[in-house]
Amino acid sequence: MTRVSSHFVQLTQDACLKSFWRKPTLRTFLRQHHIAESMLSSWAGDETKRNFLVRLFDKLVGTKSDRASAIIIDMARSLAAQEHFPDLENWEDSPLKLKDAREAISRLRTEVDRLNSTERDEAESQRRRSDAERRRQQTLAATQSLEQLKARLDALGQRIGTQEAGYEFQTWFYDLVDFFEIECRRPYTTDGRQIDGSLTLDGTTYLVELKFTANTTDAPEVDVFRRKVTSKADNTMGLFVSISGFTSTAKDAASGERTPLLVLDYQHLYAILTSAMTLSEVVGRIKRHAAQTAVAYLSVSDFSK
Questions:
Q1: What is the DSSP letter of 217?
Q2: Looking at the domain assignment, is residue 10 inside a domain?
Q3: Of the candidates 100, 123, 146, which is a domain's last residue?
Q4: Per the structure, how many domains does the chain have?
Q5: Which residue of 83, 182, 213, 268 has the fewest CB atoms within a 10 Å radius of its CB?
Q6: Residue 209's beta-bridge partner residues?
Q7: What is the pLDDT of residues 155-205, one digit of tens each?
Q8: In percent, how much of the chain has pLDDT > 90?
Q9: Distance CA 8, CA 275 (A)
């Protein structure tokens, strides 16, 4: 809670005194700003407004509580917002009363504006700190999740080539896709053909082929997948992920003018798992390379070229 200076308190007290001429009007204002009835009832009939306000503000300041500071600030803001002073009108010396009130309000308004600016700055600083902490927590959670995914893939590597590990690799891959919140469909069958799922990036749908074998993928497997892809809509492409990589003839088979295929291996997966790049960034970089060169494979080590 913002603590108010003695100068701020004095200006607020002076504005209170000069904004109201009648005691009942001042009493109503104070009641509206949560001054305790016990304090108001202690205001004797022969005690002046000035003396009562001195006693009131001394008591508020003396409590040194957040609530007392909040009451003073609330009163100051209400007083500073005044444009008219009906309680000062229709007196013989109203012009003088109004002049004094406006000067008191003007001085207080300057301090209230300064206080509001400080509070806005503090709120903005707090927001930035909160945002930074939220991003730090998100980064930490993401790092931990990627570390968990990496540990799962490392463990699967101990059983590479087994049918069971192949099915688990499918689950693992789509857990990676879900981590990056990419729209996807897990493995399904259509027209009697097994499809290892699909994902959609930047308006392009990619059919997915996943291989978790100890041997590198060769050209015939690429040709089969190409036929699956080309039998679909024109904007469909294929994403072939082979943990053990591809033979040179397989890479050639995947490539060519207007190739619909992109091919990834373990290098690309581990670049993602070590937070070097996101899945979308990896796919996008290979797609751009294929569009420029008609070559469907790009090694991670060549990404910067």
A1: B
A2: yes
A3: 123
A4: 2
A5: 83
A6: 240
A7: 999 999 899 999 999 999 999 998 898 999 998 877 777 788 999 999 899
A8: 76
A9: 53
Pick from 123, 151, 168: which residue ends a domain? 123
Phi, psi of 58 (to 5 degrees): -60, -40
Measured in whole angstroms, the distance separating CA 110 from the mean position of its chain's CA atoms is 35
Q: Which tokens go with 188?
A: 């399904």
Give this prediction's pTM: 0.58
C-alpha torsion angle, residues 105, 111, 114, 118 (rounded to 10): -130
Give the range of the structural domain holding residue 109, as residue numbers without chain letter. Answer: 6-123
Query: How far is residue 200's CA from residue 185's CA, in Å, rounded to a whole number?
Result: 9
Residue 266: inside a domain = yes
Q: How far apart are alpha carbons 76 and 65 in whole angstroms? A: 17
Residue in 259, 266, 170, 254 with CA at minimum distance from that of residue 218: 254
Q: Long-range contacts of range 85-91, CB-CB < 8 Å, 24 or more positions apart?
A: 85/19, 87/19, 87/20, 87/21, 87/22, 87/25, 88/19, 88/20, 88/21, 91/21
Verify that 117 and 212 share a domain, yes or no: no
Residues 190 and 298 in one domain: yes
